[in-house]
Design a protein that fits this description.
Number of strands: 10
Order of helices and strands: EEEHHEHEHEEEHHHHEHEH
Bound molecules: 5'-O-[(R)-(carboxyoxy)(hydroxy)phosphoryl]adenosine, zinc ion
Strand content: 15-25%
CATH architecture of the largest domain: 2-Layer Sandwich
Helix content: 40-55%
Structural class: alpha/beta
Distance between the termini: 24 Å
Strand order of the largest sheet: 3-2-1-4-5
Length: about 325
Amino acid sequence: MICLGIESSCDETAVAIIKDGRKVLANVVSTQIPIHKKFGGVVPEIASRKHLTNIAFVVKEALDNAGLTFKDIDYIGVTYGPGLIGALLVGVAYAKSLAYALDIPIVPTHHIEGHIAANYLTYEELKPPFMALVVSGGHSHLIHVKDYVDFDILGKTRDDAVGEAFDKVARVLGLPYPGGPEVSKLAREGEFTYDLPKTKFENYDFSFSGIKTAVINIAHKEGEKLRRADLACSFEQTVTDELIENCMAAMKEYNITKVALAGGVSANLVLREKLQKACKERKYECFLPDLKYCTDNAAMIASAAHYNFVCGKKYDIKDKLDLNAIANLKIGE
Ligand code: KG4
Ligand code: ZN
């Protein structure tokens, strides 16, 4: 079965073609980062307009790269939430018109379920159940992936997402958007010398606004004397420790011995190394998505769509043309 995946929830217009849920035939990502960089973050209206001008070209490039035509596509998987509503609508409207024109099914797909599925593209053998540590620009979740379409949220952030915290810290350190890779690069030149707060709740929730505010306060207080690289390093070390400690505690309680990292922040090398080390110490299996599938792409969406399709996931819509984008779509819906 050949699936054409479409992702347009934020600032990447992405289209991929994959076979049987795991074999990537084409994966095209047209990023808008250089455009939004000037504004220090994503401007939603600009993002929607760029998706609109890009999408048909990105689809054509994906088909050309795979050596296929529209006739070869069996169904379409599209991100319908969560994300920026105007941006999502471009992908959803395109997917609906293409599915109508080709008379093929459309499989609405959750963006975070896509990030989790990035691991299926990297590890042929990976099957649920496992724990997913989801760390993206908009989400931080601990999810028990009980089956391909059965998710149990064990914890989530009560305020900022971890990627969002990286982006805000980058801004206060004078680094460009997106901040995660920049903070990480600067951190490599520094040492863990600033004492920053970690949050612990009675359940497995996260919170990153306290550490973000602490970083901002230190930067303002120290001014010229600020040791920027040390602060970047201390921030990276503290947030990654919080993520790993929470994840390991949840795995122990729920008796889960496999963990997969997911979302844009899974490209963070410190987090990847710490998760691997923590798993090795406990004899857990650790799955890290290939770097090209960490940040937003459509191959992961097509993979998640495949499992929605083969598992016969039910949606609350009568006809594919009734599909709408949902900005705050909950996982598992
Ligand atoms: O998953 P993603 O591409 O978009 C959302 O679904 O939100 O994640 C983007 C986020 C941004 O906040 C970016 O700063 C962060 O992922 N990010 C990183 C790294 N690469 C991307 N954060 C830390 N270290 C990285 N290497
Ligand atoms: Zn994402």
